[in-house]
Design goal:
Elements lengths: L2 H22 L2 H15 L13 E2 L3 E2 L6 H30 L9 E7 L5 E7 L1 H10 L5 H19 L7
Antiparallel strand pairs: 1-2, 3-4
Helix pairs in contact: 1-2, 1-3, 2-3, 4-5
Length: 167
């Protein structure tokens, strides 16, 4: 079973948990599921808090300010967010498999030219984005992931070194 398929099954289970608790209309259970889904997906879905009652970008959910209907509507909203997230998993897997994924890896190249034909090239590499991309790449085995992370750490050390790169 692939990692993507397992994640999709987990998401389906979470969607069903939300539907079940909405059908039962038990506010304590709804609140429990709401908090669980929030803790599980808040860091995975960038727009998690959008269109959600009681949400603050700085603090997350303030449960004291959300009424029963707000909890219910938020849970219904979470179903849509989870279904969209599940579709994004397929798209990311497709892009990685077909070599089209460059999300999160950005290399900035700024060139400055003066009339004296002096060229200054500044390369900036976002190692954190590369690190996250390697960790999220489901097409790599654990061994390949470890090797890629080791190589990235070596490159990071070289990049940050103040020593001359070529003699």
């Amino acid at each position: 079973m692939s990692k993507v398929n397992q994640m999709k099954r987990d998401i389906d289970e979470d969607i069903n948990s939300i539907k079940d608790v909405l059908n039962n209309k038990n506010i304590e259970e709804m609140l429990k599921v709401h908090k669980y889904m929030d803790s599980k997906y808040q860091s995975k879905i960038n727009t998690w808090g959008l269109s959600q009652y009681g949400w603050s970008d700085d603090l997350g959910f303030t449960y004291e300010l959300i009424g029963e209907s707000g909890i219910s509507e938020n849970l219904e909203n979470m179903i849509g967010k989870l279904e969209g997230y599940k579709q994004d998993l397929d798209l990311r897997a497709y892009e990685i498999f077909n070599g089209k994924s460059s999300s999160g890896v950005k290399i900035y190249n700024n060139n400055k030219n003066s009339n004296s034909n002096t060229n200054t090239i500044t390369n900036t590499v976002n190692f954190n984005a590369v690190l996250q991309n390697i960790k999220d790449n489901e097409s790599l085995t654990e061994e390949q992931t470890k090797e890629a992370l080791q190589k990235l750490e070596e490159l990071k050390t070289i990049y940050k070194s103040k020593d001359g790169k070529k003699n």
